[in-house]
């Protein structure tokens, strides 16, 4: 497989491969070099606007006990970022929920082929968790033995829970993303700026550095940086991040949750300490009630960016999922 032209995880930390997504869009897949050579495999999915490299501190911890893979979704990191062309599909279709879910299925197939018969688990932050629930509940594909999802922003059905709040907030998030500054002098400047933003203020310096490095690429020859701009641009174009936030207004993923056929753990931040306009942590109970095999967990003193705020705690929750699956398999074997 060819190597992506840009990688969100440094080459010394991970091998990188380019794979084809659902409609031929090039995605970037990584295998952590420090990973175990056998045993359970974990695929990690990132949030909207982030990249696989944003989670390098957490991935490094996971690699001590599992085979660890991560990937860049379309429009992020080292993946291709298709934009509308004359006569072609609009942005909303290029980055629709079914496209993202089908991409995840293609990535899961590629990882499964690499790990042979080892069980494959999925750990996802934010929007990549929506993709997993849609893949299982709407598209009917279940490539994972179990999933742990850190605050997936699944829009509740009309009249359910915090739906009215979500309807007010999500368009604002999409608009803010479209207005995001794209050009930066370098990763250090982006990390310093993010450290002063409420959403990222509690993230550790290592996580911010990894995130900035994984989400900024050097401006290609011929690209116009504009007056006074530096030499880097966001891998995820602001209009793409905005389109993905806007796509979440669709409640059909929520409607399909009863068809999810694998164990799911939902991990949320503490709703009692969440901002008044944070609808995602308040939706966790409604999601859990509709997923047949679901447990919930709360990480206190962290916000929505929990894998960047407390990589160790999030890695521990993921490893707990692997251990629980191992215990269940042992019990089944003993009963036979």
Can you walk through the features of this model?
This protein is α/β, with parallel strands linked by helices. The protein has one domain: Alpha/Beta hydrolase fold, catalytic domain (Rossmann fold, 3-Layer(aba) Sandwich). 39% of the residues lie in helices and 16% in strands. It is built from twelve helices and eleven strands. The longest helix has 25 residues. The radius of gyration is 19 Å and the shape is globular.
Write a brief structural summary.
By secondary structure, this protein is α/β, with parallel strands linked by helices. It has one domain (14-335): Rossmann fold (3-Layer(aba) Sandwich).
Features:
alpha/beta; single chain; 8-stranded mixed sheet; 336 residues; Rossmann fold; 3-stranded antiparallel sheet
Structural class: alpha/beta
Low-confidence stretches: none
| Oligomeric state, counting identical vs distinct chains | single chain
Strand order of the largest sheet: 1-2-4-3-5-6-10-11
What do we call the CATH homologous superfamily?
A: Alpha/Beta hydrolase fold, catalytic domain
Output the helix-strand order. Answer: EEEHEHHEHEHEHHEEHHEHEHH
Cα radius of gyration in angstroms: 19 Å
Label the CATH architecture: 3-Layer(aba) Sandwich
The number of strands is 11
Number of helices: 12
Task: Output mean pLDDT.
Answer: 94
CATH fold-type name: Rossmann fold
Main sheet attributes: strand count, strand direction, barrel closure: 8 strands, mixed
N-to-C CA distance: 42 Å
Helix fraction bin? 25-40%
């Amino acid at each position: 497989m060819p190597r992506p032209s840009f990688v969100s995880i440094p080459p010394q930390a991970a091998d990188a491969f380019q794979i084809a997504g659902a409609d031929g869009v090039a995605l970037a897949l990584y295998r952590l070099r420090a990973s175990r050579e056998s045993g359970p495999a974990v695929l990690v999915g990132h949030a909207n606007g982030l990249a696989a490299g944003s989670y390098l501190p957490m991935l490094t911890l996971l690699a001590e006990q599992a085979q660890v893979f991560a990937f860049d979704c379309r429009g992020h990191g080292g993946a291709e970022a298709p934009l509308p062309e004359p006569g072609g599909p609009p942005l909303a279709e290029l980055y629709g929920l079914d496209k993202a879910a089908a991409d995840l299925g293609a990535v899961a197939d590629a990882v499964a082929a690499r790990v042979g018969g080892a069980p494959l688990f999925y750990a996802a932050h934010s929007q990549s968790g929506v993709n997993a629930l849609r893949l299982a509940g709407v598209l009917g594909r279940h490539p994972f033995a179990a999933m742990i999802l850190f605050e997936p922003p699944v829009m509740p059905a009309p009249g359910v829970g915090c739906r009215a709040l979500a309807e007010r907030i999500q368009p604002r998030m999409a608009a803010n993303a479209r207005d995001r500054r794209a050009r930066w002098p370098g990763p250090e400047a982006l990390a310093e700026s993010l450290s002063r933003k409420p959403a990222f203020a509690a993230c550790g310096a290592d996580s911010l550095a990894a995130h900035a490095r994984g989400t900024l690429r050097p401006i290609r020859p011929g690209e116009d940086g504009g007056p006074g701009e530096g030499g880097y641009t966001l891998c995820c174009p602001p209009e793409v991040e905005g389109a993905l936030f806007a796509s979440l207004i669709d409640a059909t993923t929520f409607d399909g949750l009863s068809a999810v056929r694998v164990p799911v753990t939902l991990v949320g931040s503490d709703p009692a300490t969440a901002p008044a306009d944070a609808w995602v942590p308040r939706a966790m109970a409604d999601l859990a009630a509709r997923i047949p095999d679901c447990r919930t967990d709360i990480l206190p003193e962290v916000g929505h960016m929990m894998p960047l705020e407390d990589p160790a705690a999030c890695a521990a929750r993921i490893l707990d999922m692997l251990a629980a699956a191992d215990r269940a398999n042992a019990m089944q074997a003993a009963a036979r």
